[in-house]
DUF1697 domain-containing protein
Amino acid sequence: MRTIALLRGINVGGSKKVPMAELRALMERLGFSDVATYVQSGNVVFSGPRRAARTVAREIEAGIVEQFGFEVLITIRTRDELAAVVEANPLGATVAAGNLFHVVFLSDAPDPDAVARLVPDDPAPEAYALIGRELYLSTPAGLSQSKLARVLTERPLRVRATSRNWRTVAKLLELADAD
């Protein structure tokens, strides 16, 4: 089964350095095959037996602690789950600016009412949509300047989260579909 692991907060600002070649080798030692990485920010596509996502995440997290000496939170999606994320895109018009359109992958589906309470009355020109465990964010001024990204964070949502821009999401699906 093709699976995608999204590592949060590696190779950013000189901390939590994880060379991609070493990450691929670690994944293979953990028993995964057909391992591919995409960019330095921690995106791994691999094959392995069907197992619970949390089990796979914990195995990889433990391997990273053992090899690199620090903790990294990992979010897992199957190829089919990622394809559903792309297909469900409720903010389709924003895709043209792929680096200003993000998907926040959440560990669990937050309460939609709690999310709505966090959002300003008129977030324009930004936009968001929550579908299950994914939060779609259009951030025309960039993610670092986003008012929505500042309020829709892990603590108030009570979930773990990691975001990827739309170009990365599309590329990860392409890699998952590659032979």
Summary: Residues 53-68 form the longest helix (16 residues).
